[in-house]
Structure formats: C-alpha cells, structure tokens
Amino acid sequence: MPHAARQLVTELSDDYDVVVKALGRMTKNIGDHGDDAVVESAKGFVHSASALAETIKKQSAELAKSTGKEVREHPIAAAALAAAAVGLLGYAVTHSGKRQ
User: Fold this and answer.
1) In this structure, are residues 10 and 61 in contact, taking their beta carbons and an 8 Å threshold?
2) From the DSSP assignment, how many helices (H) and strands (E) are in the chain?
3) Burial group, residue 64, by CB count within 10 angstroms (0-12, 13-18, 19+)
C-alpha cells in the first residue's frame, strides 16, 4: 500500500477509535443520570453507532487498498482523473462568488 494510502487508513482508524470511545463515555454518563428507557435507547444508539464506525473503518481500509492498486495499474488514468478533479475544484472556487 502506498505511503499516502497507509497514512489515510491510519488517520481514519484513529478517528473511528475516538468516536467509539466517546460513544462509550456517553453511554456511561447517560446510565449514571438517566431513567431506564433513556438508558436503553442510548445503549442501542451507541451500539449501532459503534457498529457503523467499525464497518466504515473496514470499508475505508479496503477502499484505500483498492485505490492504491488501481493507481499502480493505471497511473495515466489516475493522473488524468486527479487533474480533472483539480480543474473542477478550481472552476468551482473561482465561480462560487458569481451570481447568474
């Protein structure tokens, strides 16, 4: 995996871990200060959010790996797509303040 993709996966992984930890703290705080219905709802929410974060983390890693592979296999097409994306962003930025 290229260095940039590896760094992106590491950063995303760290961010997802922070989210999961924060959700865990939220559950504990609500458990300490809420009634049973609120606590059960919060626990369900936290469980679902944690599962979603884990799924996104795995998909991000897989996407980074496959993107790196595609870039290695098709470097000219990847460079053309990157140039087109930069061009579109530049166009959008220069025309964002203009009203039609």
Assistant:
1) no
2) 3, 0
3) buried
Residues whose CB falls within 8 Å of the CB of residue 60, separated by 6 or more in sequence, listed in order: 8, 9, 12, 13
50 and 20 Cβ atoms separated by less than 8 Å: yes
DSSP state of 96: T
pLDDT digits (tens, 9 = 90+) for 45-59: 777 877 887 888 788
The DSSP result for 28-42, as a single string, is HHHHHHS-HHHHHHH
Computed from CA positions of residues 84, 88, 93, 95, in that sequence, does the dihedral angle turn out positive or negative? positive
User: In this predicted model, what pLDDT tens digit does every residue of 67-98 receive, in sequence order?
Assistant: 888 888 888 988 888 888 888 888 888 877 66
| Closest listed residue to residue 68, CA positions, set 8, 20, 26 | 8
Three-state SS at 22: helix
